[in-house]
Amino acid sequence: MKREIPLMITFFTCAILLLQFIVDLPILDRMTNSINDSTSIVATFAMVLGLASLANVHLNKIYKKRRDWGYSIILMLGFVITLVLGCLHGVDKEYSEALTKVQYEAMALENQTLKKSGEKEIHNLVVKSNYYFVRNTDKVVVTKDIFDHLKAQGTPVEEETLYSVDRENRLFYTLIFENIYDPLQATMFSLLAFFMASAAFRAFRAKSFEATLLLLSAFLVMMGRVPIGEMIGSMIGLNAFFPDTSDFIMKVFNTAGQRAIMIGATLGMVASSFRMWIGLETEHLGRD
Amino acid sequence: MVQVLLFFVLLSTGFSQESSARLLKTEETFSFLVLVTLCSLIFYFIQQAKSGKKLWIRRIPALASVEEAVGRATEMGKACVFIPGIMDIDDIQTLAGLNILGSVARKTAEYDTDLKVPVAKSMVLSTAQDVVKEAYYRTGHPDTFNEGNIQFVTDDQFAFAASVNGTLVREKPAAIIMLGTFYAESLLIAETGNHIGAIQIAGTAETSQLPFFVASCDYVLIGEELFAASAYLSNDPMLLGSLKGQDYAKMLLIVFMLYGVFAELSIRFFGFPEFLSLIQYL
Q1: Nearest C-alpha of chain B: how many angstroms from A23?
Q2: According to the CATH classification, is domain B61-234 in 3.40.50?
Q3: Which residues 61-90 on chain A approach chain B with CB closer than 8 angstroms?
Q4: Where are the domains of chain B?
Q5: Do residues B223 and B60 lie in contact, with contact meaning Cβ atoms separated by under 8 Å?
Q6: Can you say how many angstroms the Cα of residue B40 is from the centroid of all Cα atoms in its chain?
Q7: Residues forming beta bridges with residue A127, ordered by sequence position
Q8: How far is A83 from A76, CA to CA, in rounded Å?
Q9: What confidence tens digit (pLDDT) does each residue in B76-91 have?
Q10: Which 8-state DSSP code applies to residue A23?
Q11: Mean pLDDT confidence for A218-229
């Protein structure tokens, strides 16, 4: 039964989702929404399991002083500090977002109530102005000096006043995320450039006819994408040769290849989903 | 399976009835017809396989090399790392990866090789633990199963890449298998694996990441091969039948595409408008 019940749930859930895709019935929309909501709820519970597993693995490592257990101490410290600070101060997604006037008024009202009841106001409002130079419907942000200059000339410009909040938990957010998390993430992402160079070096060695073709097309695409390519082209009298060739390779060969893979992959996805739906593929369900 | 076909037939008749036109989303008619055709073909070939007909499936080198990779790890006395992508369990590529994890785990259990599975989503963690545990139990090696080897790392993309890279550099596994959804972290992990000299098998349906895998890995499952992998490895005739159905669906699509090209050329060069209506419909 351990396998039959998940199979039945899979079958009926998939049937509802498929029906919702083609049948216009409000009850199916509601059922689909409920299914999506329940997925989020299950994922939240699973998150606790994940964190418990993480803590269990690393605490065990520290306790038994296994190889590289020092890294586990750093991990557990980061885990506990972030967790404690997060629980104490929470995460405020709106802290840096500009508020509309309506939100500002609502917040002002809330603060008045807090004041009357003798409680401390939690919001520090930061009022700032943005200046735009308006061309057709596009807006370009300009400094106040340019804005004043354009306004004096009679050019269409707009001023917008924004209200943002500087909340108490900003310190936590700034410390952990802006000063530690973001730079670390940027570091990892920037490593990609070096890895890309080493991978390209290996891939572009002209060892066979196909590899030579790859090298040649990569050279043409690269020359078409960098300013120096256009400059070299104009020096030898072929102004748009590199950009045009690069576009041709990307639009024709590259797009054709990508679409072929995508069509095949989509068919594979449908077939795989169908196999799971009818209970033919059950490996992911684990134990009997 | 018969119920599934009946389900489709009933829905198809709904499309043809005038009274049902308001009930059914007519804008999805074509997608639905494609789905019905594809599923019918798969169903037909599953039935063929069930009746005992021999079906030939071409050799997929990347999958044939799974045994080689695990064998190499065993000979070297090192671990084998399996990464099922960075997306959650609701992603079909993750599920495809987990389906292959079962086959890999059975091999590592037979050879008594360490299998490490770092995961980026907690829902994938519990599924992966179950899949590996089942594989170890099925091969008669429940004592060698170590739950701590299947570990939740983090759900952040680059933090996950950093952690996996750290593990690879410190532990130097002999084989790395990456099957699932990968984004920018694909090259970070694959290049690190290449630098440590591990045999690498990768597979994804993300077209933007495939060139990175091709450049850094020994074997790559491209697009649909990832979804065919579990059927290929299991050698189950019914699953192989579904692959055959998928291939025929692809052939049908190629015919449609050729028709589209022919019709477009006919209109452009000879001005045959009769092709236009079908093209516009498609």
Answers
A1: 4
A2: yes
A3: 67-68, 71
A4: 2-53+236-281, 61-234
A5: no
A6: 21
A7: A163
A8: 10
A9: 999 999 999 999 998 9
A10: B
A11: 89
